[in-house]
Design a protein that fits this description.
CATH superfamily of the largest domain: NAD(P)-binding Rossmann-like Domain
Strand content: 5-15%
Largest sheet: 6 strands, parallel
Radius of gyration: 24 Å
Bound molecules: uridine-5'-diphosphate-xylopyranose
Number of helices: 17
CATH architecture of the largest domain: 3-Layer(aba) Sandwich
Strand order of the largest sheet: 3-2-1-4-5-6
Shape: globular
CATH topology of the largest domain: Rossmann fold
C-alpha cells in the first residue's frame, strides 16, 4: 500500500518505518526542513532501540522516503496517517491546532478517495471534528478513522511489529477493509484487530494510559504506607501481583511516572470530563499523588544533611524518565535536580542516553560525568532516578570508596536491602526498610 505519514515525531517515525518494513511504500512528511534533510541522509532524529537498522534498510530498499511538502504526501498516500503533536494546553486539555490545520489542508487539496487515520492521542470526538473540518472544502469521498497507538518508548519497534491488539475506530466498511488489510501482517500470531466506533477507540487510548498511571500511583501510595507501618512493598507487590486479576506488571513503586504520555493523558482525560461536568475524582488524585511522589525522597536527603545541602555534591544515576530512552520529559530526575539547585547543592549526573538533552536544559548548572562511577567521586550521596540495567549490579566497594558518605537514595528499588547492609552502605529506598 502507499502510505503518507504526516508528522515525523516519535510516533510518526516508528509508524512509517515499521509500515515500510512490512512492504508498504511510505512517505514521511514533516515541516522541519533540518529534520527532513537529516532523515534523507539516513539519520534517525530520535533514540529508539532497533529503529536505526529498520530505517536504513527501508530507505535503501526505496520503501521509505521523506519530504517537507504536505501536498506531495497527500498525492502519494492512499492512507494518510496523522501523527501530529497534541500538546497540553494551560488548562490540561489537548491542543488540536496541528491536527485541525492539516485536516483543513487535506480538505482543500485531495481529489481522490483517501483514508485519513488519526494516530495522535486525541480527545473523544476528534475524529468527528477532523471529518467536519475536511468536509468543509472537500470535493471527493474520504473516510476518517481513529487508530490510537500503544507504543512504549524503548520498545516501540517491537510494540508496533508485534502488537497485543490493534484498535480501529471506524464507521465506514470501506475504510475498515483498508485498515484490516494494512494491519493483518502484524497480527498473524492471532492477536486481535478490534473494530469499534471512533469515540470508543479514542477513549480506549486515554483509559488505558490513565488506568496504568493509576495502577502505578496506587502502588506508590501502598509503598509510602509500607514505610510508615514497617511492611516491605516488594513482598506486598509480589503477594498482590500473583493474583491474575491484578497481574505482576506496572506494580513497581518509585519516584513517580513521567514521560510524554501518562502525565499529559491523565490530565487531558480529567479535563475532558470536567468540560461536560463529569468529575473524574480518581484522576485528580492520581495527578496530585504523582506530583508529590516525584519529590518524596527529597526531604529524606535533606534531613540526612541536617537540612543544609548548601555546597554538598549529589551524584545522580539516571536522568531519562525511564530506561532505554533519551526522553527527559516530566522525568522525576528533573524535579530532584531543581530542588538540589534551589538548596545550593552541586549535581553531578550520569545517564547512558539522556545527557545531551539534560545539558540543553541545564547548561553549566550541573556537571555531567563520563561514566557511572566518575560522578560518584567525592560526592556526598548517590541518588538513583532511573532503573537502567547498567546500574543494577554496581561494584559496591568502588562506590563506597568514591563516595564521601556511603549512602544511596534509590528511587527505583534496584538493590536487595540486606545486601547493602552487608556492604556497609546506608540505603534508603521506596516502601522498604532503611539500613
Ligand atoms: C506509555 C504506555 O505504556 C504506552 O502504551 C503509551 O502508548 C505511551 O505511554 P511510555 O510512556 O513509553 O508508554 O512508558 P511506560 O513504560 O509505560 O512507563 C511510563 C512511566 O511509568 C515511566 O515513568 C515509568 O518509570 C513508570 N512506571 C512504569 C513505574 O513507575 N512503575 C511501573 O511499574 C511501570
Amino acid at each position: 500500500m502507499k502510505i503518507a505519514v504526516i508528522g515525523s515525531g516519535y510516533v510518526g517515525l516508528v509508524t512509517g518505518t515499521c509500515l515500510a518494513e512490512n512492504g508498504n511504500e511510505v512517505l514521511c512528511v514533516d515541516i522541519d526542513n533540518n529534520k527532513v534533510e537529516q532523515m534523507k541522509a539516513g539519520i534517525v532524529p530520535i533514540y529508539e532501540p532497533h529503529l536505526d537498522v529498520l530505517f536504513e534498510r527501508n530507505i535503501e530498499a526505496g520503501r521509505l522516503s521523506f519530504t517537507t511538502d504536505l501536498n506531495e504526501g497527500l498525492d502519494f498516500g492512499e492512507v494518510i496517517f496523522l501523527a501530529l503533536p497534541t500538546p497540553e494546553n494551560g488548562d490540561g486539555s489537548a491542543d488540536l491546532k496541528y491536527v485541525l490545520s492539516v485536516a483543513e489542508e487535506i480538505g482543500k487539496y485531495i481529489t481522490s478517495y483517501k483514508v485519513i487515520v488519526d494516530k495522535s492521542t486525541v480527545p473523544v470526538g476528534t475524529a468527528e471534528r477532523v471529518r467536519a473540518t475536511i468536509a468543509k472544502a472537500c470535493k471527493t469521498e474520504f473516510d476518517v478513522v481513529s487508530n490510537p497507538e500503544f507504543l512504549r518508548e524503548g520498545f516501540a519497534v517491537d510494540d508496533f511489529l508485534k502488537p497485543e491488539r490493534i484498535v480501529i475506530g471506524s464507521s465506514s466498511a470501506r475504510a475498515t477493509e483498508v485498515m484490516q488489510r494494512l494491519y493483518q501482517p502484524f497480527v498473524r500470531s492471532g492477536n486481535p484487530i478490534l473494530i469499534m466506533d471512533e469515540k470508543s477507540a479514542e477513549l480506549t487510548k486515554y483509559a488505558s494510559n490513565s488506568f496504568l498511571a493509576t495502577k502505578i500511583t496506587f502502588m506508590n501510595e501502598i509503598a509510602n504506607y509500607c514505610e510508615k507501618v514497617g511492611a516491605d512493598v516488594d513482598k506486598v507487590r509480589i503477594g498482590m501481583g500473583t493474583d491474575s486479576r491484578i497481574g505482576k506488571r506496572f506494580l513497581f513503586p518509585g519516584i513517580g511516572y513521567g514521560g510524554s504520555c501518562f502525565p499529559k493523558d491523565v490530565k487531558a482525560l480529567h479535563k475532558s470530563g470536567k468540560d461536560i461536568n463529569y468529575d473524574f475524582k480518581i484522576l485528580d488524585a492520581v495527578v496530585q499523588v504523582n506530583d508529590k511522589q516525584k519529590t518524596i525522597l527529597y526531604p529524606k536527603i535533606s534531613s540526612f544533611f541536617d537540612d543544609d545541602l548548601k555546597g554538598k555534591t549529589i551524584a545522580i544515576w539516571g536522568l531519562a524518565f525511564k530506561p532505554e530512552t533519551d526522553d527527559i520529559r516530566e522525568a522525576p530526575a528533573l524535579y530532584m535536580i531543581d530542588k538540589f539547585l534551589e538548596a545550593g547543592a552541586h549535581v553531578k549526573a550520569f545517564d547512558p542516553e539522556a545527557m545531551e538533552n539534560v545539558k540543553q536544559k541545564y547548561g553549566d548548572q550541573i556537571a555531567l560525568g563520563k561514566d557511572m562511577y566518575d560522578v560518584t567521586k567525592g560526592a556526598d550521596a548517590l541518588l538513583i532516578c532511573t532503573e537502567w540495567s547498567i546500574f543494577r549490579t554496581p561494584d559496591y566497594k568502588r562506590l563506597k570508596s568514591n563516595l564521601r558518605n556511603p549512602i544511596i537514595f534509590d528511587g527505583r528499588n534496584l538493590y536487595p536491602v540486606l545486601e547493602l547492609a552487608k556492604e556497609g552502605i546506608h540505603y534508603i529506598s521506596i516502601g522498604r526498610q532503611n539500613v
